[in-house]
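Bit of a strange request maybe. I'm writing a small parser for structure token strings and I need a real example to test against, not something I typed by hand. Could someone generate the tokens for this chain?
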Amino acid sequence: MLKPGTQSPDFTLLDQDGNAVRLSDLLAQGPVLLYFYPADFTPGCTKEACGLRDRFPTIEAKGMTIAGVSPQSPDSHRRFREEHGLPFTLLSDEDKTVIREYDCDGPLGIGVRRATYLIDPKDTGGIIRDAVLADFRIGRHMDFIERATSTG
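Reply from user aminoacidic:
Good idea to test on real output. This should exercise your parser:
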């Protein structure tokens, strides 16, 4: 996992609508909560995404952007987003390049580790301010979001 104080690697991935999204463009809008998750439609990932959805008004009011990254296709992300009413961007990393750059690849390259990064806006250098890695403990990610929005 990348440590706080580290420069966030820039990347471009396709979103749920097939549009190219660049991290630096998201950072130009303010802080980014970038979360990595194993798969659409799985119980843990659905719980996490819906928890973020439920906190979205607070996150948005703080001027933060959310983007989720997993190895499913843009079409899978579109269906997942629609089915659960997710108001934020889901990014497709089918070859897991970005997942590896952010040190979220699973053991022996299998799966994806659940991690969330709070990245400072572009004008402050796109530095990782804080991060949490908690593969099966969804509550730790929600606690992280609560702290980020209460101080961010």
